[in-house]
Amino acid sequence: MEFIAFAIAIAVAYHALKGYRQFRERTLLFLNISFSLLGAGLLIDSLSIAVVLLASFRREFLPLVGFGYTINFITQVVAYGILVFAYLKQTGNVGHEAALAVLPITFFEHNAVSELILLFLLVYIAAQTAMNYSMNKTTNSLLVLGAFTSLAVSHFFFLLFTLAPIFFPFAHIAQLFGFLLLLGMLLRVNQ
Amino acid sequence: MTEVLQGAATKSAKYRSQFRIYVDIMHVIQRENNQAKPTRILYGANLSHDRLVKYLEELKALGVIQESGTEDKTYGLTQKGIEFLNNFRKVESFAGAFGFRI
Asked: What is the pTM of this model?
């Protein structure tokens, strides 16, 4: 699932980079860096899980799962932080609020607090995309709104997973669904 | 051509950038079935006469529009201009989906 999400994240990053090269718009660069980081984190996480699976859960390979998750967590916090910064920059509110986008970078451990930080960032981004949809009413903006809402829901499930393991698959399904919505948007843009 | 337009794109400000004015002029020309009269462009792109003349000359020099007619001048997009505008629309639609304006 994470490998599919990685491929979609890289496709979004590539599209943003192509746009940035053509028109030199900085927000496209922010999108590129953000989705490249998301893709890198997802790749490392999925590869570390794959290695552990291939090694038939041998004890010496088990720390790889924690390593993959930690890298994925850091890249997500930075990536969503960059997106929050881009939204703040566009609305001209880059003051003390910008610190909110940078502050979470200091958290590296997987726990309820760190999942709450990701959830906070994603809810902010989802709210921005909701405002964008309320103004534009386009299918593409609806797909992006759906994607970030789904990613926020997935982190809500990851948060619940710290309490009950049953939420783990739901979190991954919601994450994949979010990235599939982004893929739908990309395909529509390139029609 | 894109490199020259990039310079205009980097100057983002509260006022409409030079890059945005180029795009607006090209949009009007395309909307007028690629045969736009100066007055239509003037109203469509919301420009003064002097600025319109200046920008039309710059776009001609970039090779994205062409002038035809002698007394009754019309402007059309070149192949290069059509491709540029199509690329711009795709990128604008992509960025717009996230709520970013370019």
From this structure: 0.79
